[in-house]
Design goal:
The structure holds two protein chains of two kinds. By secondary structure, chain A is of the alpha/beta class. Chain A has one domain: Amidase signature (AS) enzymes (Alpha-Beta Complex). Helices cover about 40% and strands about 15% of the residues of chain A. Chain A has 15 helices and eleven strands. In chain A, helix 7 packs antiparallel against helix 15. Chain A is globular. In chain B, strands 1, 5, 6, 7, 10, 11, 12, 13 and 14 form a nine-stranded mixed beta sheet that branches. In chain B, a hairpin with a 2-residue loop joins strand 8 and strand 9. Chain B is α+β, with helices and mostly antiparallel strands. The two termini of chain B are about 55 Å apart. The longest helix of chain B is centred in the middle third of the chain and has 20 residues. Chain B has three domains: about 220 residues, no CATH class; about 130 residues, no CATH class; about 60 residues, Arc Repressor Mutant, subunit A, CATH 1.10.10. Chain B contains 15 helices and 16 strands. The chains are: A alpha/beta, B alpha+beta. Chains A and B meet through helix 9 and helix 10 of A and loops of B.
């Protein structure tokens, strides 16, 4: 049934494409039709070149016809967050600063998707330069949570999560610096995975905080998420922080029913909404009933994670965003003067308030006389947090917590209080600081709003996280869920 | 030479920025070189496009290590890069990747030679310690055109090795000698070309003065971006005089950054300490700490050429070369190796070969190349031996013919000129021109006796016998005339003395 294509999983669409009962063109036409009615309400996409999509779909169908299909992603559309470079497409990071920019090159992941036969399908809205947890910081448009259009979708990969929940696309890419894949996945009732730092090349990902950023797959099921992950992970000589072929062996999934699950002490305490705690506790009980060993673990430095993150991430951001000055590309102020005056005016006009706040904070924590008290101390705290997580993960396979303490809030509700907003990422930030893989899996609702649980594993334990997620979703009805629009 | 009053001492430290001889830029695959159209040698990484990442060029790291091995430095097992943040349009990322805390080269020393009392006399040798050398990226070039500004990123990302000395230099002459030694070592090891006209070597010069005998260093100034050896020399002379004048007038020296106007031969203040940048250094998160394996260091150690002054000492002490010829040869590794190849073909007379190479060959090569080197006006122009028409063994052949008495030294000059013109062997030219000396004793004895018997030379004979040694030369002309100049002059001299005794 062509009118229901948007409800199907990527795996099912792939099977139909392989069987010849569906063409990539038919699929893309159906999704474009849905885009024309739904995107206006949800605001997930900032750009969709329909002619280009259909040309890619035709090329895919022709390959398949010729027996040159490229694998399970052949002909499947993948929508891409607007901070990941795709040659010939806008690369704006939802910022006025880069709004005129079209990328002259492909990111590593874009190359991988093309090599896998996927359709590079449109640009997804985000918080400006990935700084935010609600997508309200986009300078281009608002994105709304498909489950409640008065609420935020989460962020910064809000477009990536909302597009899935709204049935606009079966697969999407996000990026995650402190929770930017997992938090919107939780708020929109979809699956989002942040891989081990170094598993996926960052070449072509616009840097926010280089030591924390990772690209990751998002989908409406764990199975689909894994499908996309497999296409993205490969060595890349253009990113020196990306693992080489010999260092990237993933641990085996093992039997998910034998997983040892650690529950960090105190994480379900203050600040966690009762409905969220109830849904996550139900997930814990599910795993216990399956035979998993559940134990409590201590992470004494966990409280340091948020302040540590806001020092490390803003320090790196203040430097990473230095290059946006109007000289070579992007927004250039019409203010006349010396080159340096032009640069200053371009930056003042081009960046939004949250980006400016973080650049100022990062500049401060790196300044002479303050770097030791802030940046250097934060690096020490980061090392401590990582050591504690690795020690905990020596005794258990995964750590289970809520993904976000509370369900999606209303648009504008926390706009005046950035510190309150920063607490959205309290459970997700440690995985970035420690470079660990983590996944958010839907596990229920708080009223009409989705809730997810969060698993963190040891480096390169993605297969275990995915196996645990599959075990849960097979027994529950949350996979493939879409909001009624 | 500067005239520093004897109760003052000047203390100089240099920071030398050298563009390394690599095919690609230091963090990008884009090639680089001189004389391209603006912004021809750029790529997304060089331009700092969003999403691009630096990848360390191993060739640049290896050239830096090679430099370290040349100066006997420590090569640490790890090196790392930091970001130096500042805003300027020539800096594509608005941060420069440099090595603040973990440089690739630590320590080492450079031997220098000061000018001797005359050209023929070796001057004093000293060792100047290297504090460290670190690998960083060059920036682009900003120029102002009319109401606007233009920026060219061809130079952005070119690998730069910044070599920082200890404050060991004590005069403008020492600073000059240091730079000359450094350039010779860098070029001879193939680390860098050091063409100052192309901006491949630039220098920041730290100068302070103190009362002789004082232990505490005076307040220093840093004059930036000097692009010739003479500018460094002139800056030291200027700064020394200025600082002494200030101090003697009871004023303090301000710690400041200065520029140098070579046309006016004057320094000027760029910024004082109050305006110093806060570069907000932090470790670059895109480049993991680089491990330098001991195998790499051992492999590169094999590429280290013989030290300039070790070679000089060997030439003078072992080969018996005059200092002047030795010092000319060792300045150019290719020339020295060419010389050594000739010596290998004729080991009996290194000095004879050295004199021909250092005088005749260099002169003719320079003349055929046309231009002199502008990078260091006081040093001999670098010549290209690639196009040299004479091969080392051929030159050795020429010297051997002279040594064997087949041709005279005077004839050797003529043969050399012909060899340079045609590339033919000396023996072939000697034969073709019929230059072979007559060393037939029997034939020459007859001619000598005939000339002695000639009444025209009787007066000269009488003078010689009366004790005027030089009078014997008057008899040599007629003998040469009768032999069409082919008589072996050494033999004639012997025969004349025998018959006139």
């Amino acid at each position: 049934m062509a009118d229901a294509l948007h409800t199907l999983s990527a795996a099912e669409l792939g099977r139909r494409l392989a069987a010849g009962t569906l063409t990539s063109r038919a699929l893309c036409e159906a999704l474009i039709a849905r885009y024309q009615t739904v995107n206006e309400k949800v605001g997930a996409f900032t750009h969709l070149d329909q002619a280009d999509v259909l040309a890619q779909a035709d090329a895919s169908d022709a390959r398949r016809q010729a027996g040159q299909g490229r694998g399970p992603l052949e002909g499947l559309p993948v929508a891409i967050k607007d901070n990941i470079a795709v040659k010939g497409q806008p690369l704006t990071c939802s910022s006025k600063m880069l709004a005129p920019l079209v990328s002259p090159y492909d990111s590593h992941v874009a190359e991988r998707l093309r090599a896998a036969g996927a359709i590079l399908y449109g640009r997804l809205n985000m918080d400006e330069f990935a700084m935010g947890s609600s997508t309200e910081n986009s300078a281009l448009r608002k994105t709304f949570n498909p489950w409640d259009l008065a609420r935020i979708p989460g962020g910064s990969s809000g477009g990536s999560a909302a597009a899935l929940a709204a049935g606009l696309v079966p697969l999407s890419l996000g990026s995650d610096t402190g929770g930017s894949i997992r938090q919107p996945a939780s708020h929109c009732g979809v699956v989002g995975l942040k891989p081990t730092y170094g598993l996926i090349s960052r070449f072509g990902l616009v840097a926010f905080a280089s030591s924390l950023d990772q690209i990751g797959p998002m989908a409406r099921s764990v199975e689909d998420c894994e499908l996309l992950l497999n296409a993205l992970a490969s060595a890349d000589a253009r990113d020196m922080t990306c693992f080489g072929p010999s260092d990237r062996a993933l641990s085996a999934a093992g039997d998910a029913k034998k997983l040892r699950i650690g529950i960090p002490k105190g994480f379900l305490g203050k600040g966690v909404a009762p409905e969220v705690a109830a849904a996550v506790n139900a997930a814990v009980e599910f795993y216990r009933a399956q035979g998993c060993a559940i134990s409590e673990v201590e992470l004494p430095s966990a409280d340091l994670a948020v302040p540590t993150y806001y020092v490390v991430a803003t320090a790196e951001a203040s430097s990473n965003l230095g290059r946006y000055d109007g000289v070579r590309y992007g927004h250039r102020s019409s203010v006349a003067g010396t080159p340096v005056e032009m640069m200053t005016a371009s930056r003042s006009e081009g960046f939004g308030p949250e980006v400016k706040r973080r650049i100022l904070l990062g500049t401060f924590v790196l300044s002479a006389g303050y770097a030791d008290a802030y940046y250097v101390r934060a690096l020490r705290a980061r090392a401590k947090i990582r050591a504690e997580y690795l020690a905990a993960l020596a005794g258990v396979d995964v750590l289970l917590t809520p993904t976000v303490p509370t369900p999606a809030f209303k648009v504008g509700e926390k706009a005046a209080d950035p510190l309150q907003l920063y607490l959205e990422d309290i459970f997700t930030i440690p995985a970035n600081l420690a470079g660990l893989p983590a996944i958010s899996v839907p596990c229920g609702k708080s009223g009409h709003l989705p809730v997810g649980f969060h698993l963190v594993g040891a480096p390169l334990s993605e297969a275990k996280l995915l196996a645990a997620g599959r075990l849960f979703e097979a027994a529950h009805g949350y996979a493939h869920q879409q909001a009624a629009l | 030479m500067s005239n520093v009053p004897s109760d003052w001492e000047v203390v100089i430290g240099l920071e030398v920025h050298v563009q390394l001889r690599t095919r690609a830029k230091v963090f990008a695959s884009s090639p680089w070189g001189f004389g391209k159209e603006p912004n021809e040698q750029v790529d997304p990484v060089v331009l700092g496009l969003p999403g691009t990442l630096p990848v360390v060029n191993r060739e640049a790291v290896e050239k830096a290590i090679l430099f370290g091995l040349v100066v006997g430095a420590e090569i640490p097992e790890r090196c790392a890069w930091d970001r130096k943040n500042y805003f300027y349009p020539d800096n594509p990322k608005n941060y420069q990747l440099t090595q603040k805390d973990f440089p690739v080269v630590v320590g080492g020393q450079v031997e220098i030679e000061l000018p001797g009392a005359s050209r023929n006399v070796m001057g004093e040798h000293k060792f100047i310690r290297i504090h460290h050398a670190h690998l960083e990226e060059d920036v682009g070039k900003l120029s102002h055109a009319g109401s606007g500004s233009l920026v060219d990123y061809n130079r952005a990302g070119v690998p730069l090795l910044e070599i920082v000395t200890e404050p060991d230099l004590r005069s403008s002459a020492e600073a000059e000698a240091f730079l000359r030694s450094l350039v010779a070592m860098l070029t001879q090891a193939g680390v860098a070309d050091c063409d100052m006209e192309k901006g491949q070597l630039r220098c920041d010069c730290n100068v302070s003065v103190r009362r002789r005998g004082a232990e505490k260093l005076g307040t220093r100034t840093e004059t930036k971006n000097l692009n010739s050896i003479s500018s460094v020399r002139d800056t030291v002379i200027y700064e020394t005089a200025r600082q002494i004048r200030e101090l003697e007038a009871g004023r303090a020296i301000t710690q400041e950054t200065r520029g140098w106007n070579a046309e006016l031969a004057r320094g000027y203040v760029l910024r004082d300490k109050e305006d110093a940048h806060d570069y907000r250094y932090f470790p670059d998160p895109d480049i993991p700490t680089l491990k330098i394996s001991r195998e790499t260091v051992a492999r590169l150690a094999k590429q280290v050429p013989e030290n300039l002054y070790d070679r000089q000492r060997r030439y003078v002490e072992k080969l018996g070369l005059p200092y002047t010829a030795a010092s000319v040869l060792v300045n150019d590794r290719a020339l020295a190796e060419w010389f050594e190849a000739a010596v290998a073909a004729h080991p009996a007379n290194p000095s004879g070969i050295a004199n021909l190479v250092a005088n005749d060959l260099l002169r003719d090569l320079a003349a055929s190349a046309g231009a002199a080197g502008a990078f260091d006006e006081a040093a001999p122009a670098p010549v290209s031996l690639a196009s040299c028409p004479i091969k080392p063994a051929q030159l050795a052949g020429l010297v051997k013919l002279t040594d064997d008495g087949v041709i005279s030294k005077q004839q050797a000059k003529e043969v050399f000129a012909e060899m340079f013109k045609t590339g033919r062997d000396a023996a072939a030219i000697v034969d073709a021109k019929g230059l072979r000396q007559n060393s037939d004793t029997g034939e020459l004895e007859k001619i000598v006796q005939e000339v002695i018997a000639d009444p025209a030379v009787a007066k000269s004979i009488a003078e010689y016998r009366a004790g005027n040694e030089k009078a014997i030369n008057a008899l040599k002309g007629p003998i040469m005339k009768r032999t069409q100049g082919k008589a072996n002059p050494v033999l004639i001299d012997q025969l004349l003395r025998k018959f006139l005794a």
